[in-house]
Structures are given as structure tokens and as C-alpha cells.
């Protein structure tokens, strides 16, 4: 005969195993969604850089400055507001935007220097 | 009578003015596209964080580590390949991904600490 404690342990272990399998399945499903979203983000970022590269060329051709603080301030305020609406941390949205804009300005400066 | 040089200068100035107006219109059009893309990016980032927050909770509940280097390596390789396909600088895609993942891991660690 199996000891009651031992039987209980086996049942608990089986339950834990089921729970772990469910957790693994949920993790896989969520990771699939993250991968889909990441692909969409990469293609959108590519499209954004196509547009900013055109802006960079235009600015270089017309001798406009690479950065435009007033425009960036407007963009930042708008993105923070959109982030709140989307339930995304506005501080993260701001850090993210600053990161992307730094890369854009680097491209603009390069475009101006290449002329 | 106007001096030929002066007339030429006036014509050139008029041409320059038309060119500048066209450039300003193009800039406005491109900025409109960038703003649309940014709104889409913010909503997608929000959706990504919803998914990673669920992953964070799941990992905290099951005592899984907050970061998963093998998974991150796979994601990075895939994103670099997608970036090349989308004509986005893969170095930028990598920097961007590292930036986003750092924020996600910060959330996961917080989720684990809150338990």
C-alpha cells in the first residue's frame, strides 16, 4: 500500500506537471504573438526610415538644419498622449522616441555631410 | 528698363521660391506619413508590452528566470533577417531590439519582486 502522504505527493506532482505544461503552452502562444508583432514593428520601422531618409535628403538639398526641436517637441507630446490612450507607459514611449530620433538625426547629418 | 542681370535674378528668385514651396509641401506630406507610422508603432508597442507583461506574470508564477538568452538570440537573428528583407539597417534593428528587451526585462524583474 502507498502511504497517503506519498499518494498526495504524487497527485500534487501530477497537478504541478499539468500546470507546467499549460504554462509552457501559454508561453509558446504569447511568444508567437510577440514574434508577429515584432515582424510588424520591423516593417513599420523600415517604412518610417524610408520617410525620414527622404526628409533628410530634402533638408540637405535645401540647407535646412538636420534637427528641428519645435517639431520634435510636438511629436513627443503627441506620442505621450497616444501612449496613454494605448495604455503604454508614456515614459517608455518618450525614451523609445528619443532613441529612434537620435538614429534619424545621425542619418540626416550623414546625408548633409555626403553632399 | 530693368537690367538683364536683375531680371535674371528676379526669375531665379521666383524659381527658388517655387522650389522652396514645393520642398515645404513635400516635407509636410512626409511628416504626415511619419506621424501616421508613429501612431501605429505606439499601438503595436503597447500590444507587445501587453504580451510581455503576461509572459512576465507567467514566469514569476512558475519561478522561471526573467531573461532567456537562447530565446533572445533566436529573436535577434530573426529580426536581423527581417530587417534585411525590409531594407532596414540590421544594426539599427539589433540596437532597437536590445533597447526594447532591456525594458521588458526590467518589467519582469519588477513582476518577480512584487510577488
The CATH topology assignment of chain A is Chorismate Mutase Domain, subunit A
For CATH, the homologous superfamily of chain A is named as: Chorismate mutase
Low-pLDDT runs of 5+ residues of chain A are: none
Order of helices and strands of chain A: HHH
Major sheet characteristics of chain A:
none
Please name the two chains that share the biggest interface, counting residues whose Cβ lies under 8 Å from a Cβ on the partner chain.
A-B, 50 and 50 residues
- Large-scale geometry of chain A: elongated
Count of discrete structural domains of chain A:
1
The share of residues in helices of chain A is: over 70%
Kindly summarize this structure in a few lines.
With 115 residues, chain A is mainly alpha-helical. In chain A, 86% of the residues lie in helices and 0% in strands. In chain A, α1 runs parallel beside α3 (90-113) and α2 runs antiparallel to α3 (90-113).
How would you explain this protein's 3D organization?
2 copies of one chain form a homodimer. Chain A is an all-alpha fold and 115 residues long. The first copy, chain A, has a single domain (5-113), classed as Chorismate mutase (Chorismate Mutase Domain, subunit A), CATH 1.20.59.10. Helix content of chain A is 86%, strand content 0%. The first copy, chain A, is built from 3 helices and no strands. In chain A, helix 2 (69-85) runs antiparallel to helix 3. Chain A is elongated and about 80 Å long. The relative contact order of chain A is 0.09. The mean pLDDT of chain A is 88. Chains A and B meet through helix 1, helix 2 and helix 3 of A and helix 1, helix 2 and helix 3 of B.
Amino acid at each position: 500500500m502507498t502511504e497517503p502522504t506519498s499518494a498526495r505527493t504524487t497527485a500534487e506532482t501530477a497537478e504541478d506537471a499539468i500546470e507546467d505544461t499549460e504554462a509552457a503552452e501559454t508561453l509558446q502562444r504569447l511568444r508567437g504573438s510577440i514574434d508577429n508583432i515584432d515582424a510588424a514593428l520591423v516593417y513599420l520601422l523600415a517604412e518610417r526610415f524610408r520617410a525620414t531618409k527622404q526628409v533628410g535628403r530634402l533638408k540637405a538639398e535645401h540647407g535646412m538644419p538636420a534637427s528641428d526641436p519645435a517639431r520634435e517637441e510636438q511629436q513627443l507630446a503627441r506620442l505621450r498622449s497616444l501612449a496613454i490612450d494605448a495604455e503604454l507607459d508614456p515614459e517608455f514611449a518618450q525614451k523609445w522616441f528619443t532613441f529612434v530620433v537620435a538614429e534619424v538625426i545621425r542619418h540626416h547629418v550623414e546625408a548633409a555631410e555626403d553632399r
